[in-house]
Amino acid sequence: MFCNQCQETAKNTGCTIKGVCGKTEETSNIQDLLMFVCQGLSYLTIAARKQGIDTNAESKHITNCLFTTITNANFDEKSIIQVVKDTISYRDQLKSKISVSDTHPSISWSAKSDAEYYEKAKEVGTLTYDADEDIRGLKQYVLFGVKGMAAYAEHAFNLGFEDPEIYNFMEESLVMITKPISLNDAFNWVVRTGEHGVKVMALLDKANTSTFGNPEISKVKIGVGTNPGILISGHDLKDLEQLLIQTEGKGIDVYTHSEMLPANAYPNLKKYKHLVGNYGNAWHRQLDEFETFNGPILFTTNCLVPPRKTTTYNDRVFTTGATGMPEWKRIEKRLPNGQKDFSEIIELAKTCPPPTEIETGEITIGFAHNQVLALAGQILDAVNSGAIKKLVVMSGCDARQKTREYFTEFAKQLPKDTVILTSGCAKYRYNKLQLGDINGIPRVLDAGQCNDSYSWAFVALKLKEVLNLDDINKLPIVFNIAWYEQKAIIVHLALLSLGIKNTHIGPTLPGFLTPNLLSAVQQQFGVQTIKTVEEDMKIFKLA
Ligand code: FS2
Ligand code: SF4
């Protein structure tokens, strides 16, 4: 195995024996094989569209495959082998309808036994992408960005919002990886990946806000009630809505977990009175927090953590969508009305004790772009009067490493005349710190999930317009991004494509950036890694 797609990759170069995330060698290889067969299918979808054939089903399938291979989404190699087989079947059906001139092996490869799948899986990893390490690094950069893009595209299509241009770009990217390419063209492809990142985040924003309304300022309880509860994790708001519909009036409380917290701010979700609050913190604390939750837990997307040997909650955890864990059950059935059938989870919840309280109080959320623009006058006044000196974007992911304490410390040491703009699970490092407010504006404005980083790009562009500036980098905004997995890669690339320079990312820079690529990215975009809190305060001119 070789996997270097996330920030926790071993020695910041690559996991080669077992994933730091817990992914086994076999699962990692089978995920590579899934990408390989998706390359074959992508050759055909692109050719088929040129021949006037609709490939919507195939594009959605490829999107789901990319999502399946994201960090901490799916650890269930048996189910992934089935997805490989489904991909081959999509490919061969399409092949029978069109004429194809390409001859890449991914267009014709197939196997007769699972043993052959495992054998082939060892030969198709990202190390085989190119002999030149810089080009290989850029191809990995594109692939990982496209994986993040796929996650957002899938949430959008689940709500009925699609953009064929995004599907086409993801498929063209998978094909590009199989071909020779110049360094310059590969670099430009990375930049184009960011441009499509903006498009997909805008699409998902439209999907979420037109379905559930614009997020509004909301206070979310972090304590517990006395009813049995169901905990829902991940990012898929449609799954949450269906769970809320099916649990209504059943004496069960629904709690959000980790990246599902922002759901509490959407009018068409918060209207359900039994959506009672948020339980716990960022994804990596689930090993303890699921024990004390006592009731069933539903994963709609990453981040899953493989259970410990001593874990007692395995029979209470369910996965759906692109997620999977061999020890946990999967929701496969649908109700006659087309909704996912959550009755097994609901019946189990009725037999469980209520959650054990681990925190009390509430947190304020709901500062997505529409709400922030409603406060724009107030914020601009505070900026103009000097009450707010700087806006500090601290969006992104949280993860396990001790070095992540940097972000808590950074938030604590920020001068009192700064406001943190956050989104993604990175927020759990400082969203319960009681940092106060500036003239009624909370010092932590939470826009939502990682995809809602779109809000901060949107707000920055609006501010640039209102303040009549010729360059977005002249705004009093700095970017200190915490990254972990591939959604953060696409978010960061999207920010770069909007012309935002001098972003800091950490705790470390991506392992797939070779020294040459690092200097290219630094030269073109001014990207830097985090240092110590004290040094960064000076660099950002905050101290
Ligand atoms: Fe956090 Fe995990 Fe949102 Fe990432 S819950 S690191 O998937 O996408 O952020
Ligand atoms: Fe390693 Fe991250 Fe890949 Fe897991 S996802 S195997 S931790 S690089």
Write structural notes for this entry.
Helices cover 43% and strands 10% of the residues. By secondary structure, the chain is α/β, with parallel strands linked by helices. The protein is globular, with a radius of gyration of 23 Å. The protein starts with 24 loop residues before the first helix and ends with a helix. It binds FE-S-O hybrid cluster and iron/sulfur cluster. It is found in: Cytoplasm. Catalyzes the reduction of hydroxylamine to form NH(3) and H(2)O. Its main location: cytoplasm.
Rounded to an integer in angstroms, the radius of gyration calculated over CA atoms is 23 Å
Mean pLDDT: 97
Biggest beta sheet attributes: 6 strands, parallel
User: Could you give the distance between the termini?
Assistant: 45 Å
Low-confidence stretches: none
**Total E-strand runs:** 16
> Helix count, per DSSP?
18
Task: Estimate percent helicity.
Answer: 40-55%
Q: Which strand order does the major sheet show? A: 4-3-2-5-6-7
Strand-pairing-aware structural class: alpha/beta
Strand content: 5-15%
* Chemical compounds bound to the protein: FE-S-O hybrid cluster, iron/sulfur cluster
Label the overall shape.
Answer: globular
Organism: Bacteroides sedimenti
Subcellular location: Cytoplasm
Keywords: 4Fe-4S, Cytoplasm, Iron, Iron-sulfur, Metal-binding, Oxidoreductase
Catalytic activity: A + NH4(+) + H2O = hydroxylamine + AH2 + H(+)
